[in-house]
Amino acid sequence: MYAQSVPQSRSLTMTVADYVALMKPRIISLLLITAYCAMVVAAGHLPSLGLTVLTMVGLTLSSGGAHAVNMWYDRDIDGLMHRTKMRPVVQGRVPAVHSLIFGIFLQIVSFAGLGLLVNWATALCSLGGFLFYVLVYTIWLKRRTPQNIVIGGAAGAFPPLVGWAAVTGTVGWAAILMFLIIFLWTPPHFWALALYKQDDYRNAGIPMMPVVRGEKVTKTQSMIYTWLLLAVSVALYFTGAVSWVYLVIAVGLGVGFIAYHVFLLREREPETRWAKKTFKFSLVYMMVIFFGMILALPHH
C-alpha cells in the first residue's frame, strides 16, 4: 500500500510543478516588473495594493496562458533543442492538448477578471499581448523568417501598456515609449542568446538571424537596435513622466549596451564569450531602466 501511495502524492506535486512550468514563470517575472513600473509612473506614486494585485494576477494568467499554448504548438521543435527538450509537453508529463486547453483557459480567466475588476482597456491590452505571442510570433513568424524575434518581440512589450491602462484606463505616450523600449531591446537580447545557442536553433530548423544570415550581420543589426534603443529611452524623459535622474540612468545604460556590442563585433567565431556577456547585460539593462523610472518620478 505504502509503495503505491508515495508515487501518487509525488505525482500531484510534480503535476502542479509541470503546469507551473508551462507558464514560464521566470519570463513572467520580468514582464510583471515592467508592468508594475509602468503603473507607478502612470500614477506618479505607488498604486493601491488591490489594483496592483489584480493587475499582476491578470497579467500572470494571460502571459502564462500564452506560454502554455506556445509549448503545445512548439512541442516538435522543442524536442530537438537542448535548451527546451526537458519541457513538460516534450517529455510527455503533460499531454499536448492539456497544455493548449490550460493556456486558453488561463487567458479567458485573465480577460474576464481584468475587464470586470480593473477595466476593459487593461483586459484588451493583455489579450493583445496573448494574441500577438501565439498567432503572430509562435504560429506565423517563428519558423518562417529571421525577423521572427524583431516583430514577434512586440508580444513581450505589451505589459507596460497593461500597467498604464490599469491606472489610467487608457494608453499614454509614455506607455508607448516603454513599449518601444522593450520592442527595440528584444532583438539584441535574443540574438546574443542565439549567437551562443545557434547550434540548437540550427538543429531545430528555426531561422534565427545567426543561423540564416551569419554572425557578422547579426551583430551589426544588433548594434543598430541598441542605438535606436538609446534614442527611444532618452525620448521618455521628454514626456515629463520621469525626472532627470532617469535620463542619466538611460544614457549610462544605453552607452554601456553599445560598448558591449563593440566588443561583441570584435569577437571572432567561434568565440562566444562576449555573446554570453551581452545577453547577461541585456537582462540587467531591462531591470535597471524600469526600476530607474520609479526612482526618477518627478516631484509634484
Automatic annotation (TrEMBL):
Ribosomal protein is among the record's keywords: no
InterPro entries: Protohaem_IX_farnesylTrfase (IPR006369), UbiA_prenyltransferase (IPR000537), UbiA_prenylTrfase_CS (IPR030470), UbiA_sf (IPR044878)
Compartment list: Cell membrane
Sequence intervals crossing the membrane: 27-46, 52-73, 94-114, 120-141, 148-167, 173-196, 217-238, 244-266, 278-297
Reactions the enzyme catalyzes: heme b + (2E,6E)-farnesyl diphosphate + H2O = Fe(II)-heme o + diphosphate
PANTHER family xref list: 4-HYDROXYBENZOATE SOLANESYLTRANSFERASE, PROTOHEME IX FARNESYLTRANSFERASE, MITOCHONDRIAL
Note from the entry: Carbon 2 of the heme B porphyrin ring is defined according to the Fischer nomenclature.
Family designation: Belongs to the UbiA prenyltransferase family. Protoheme IX farnesyltransferase subfamily.
Protein name: Protoheme IX farnesyltransferase
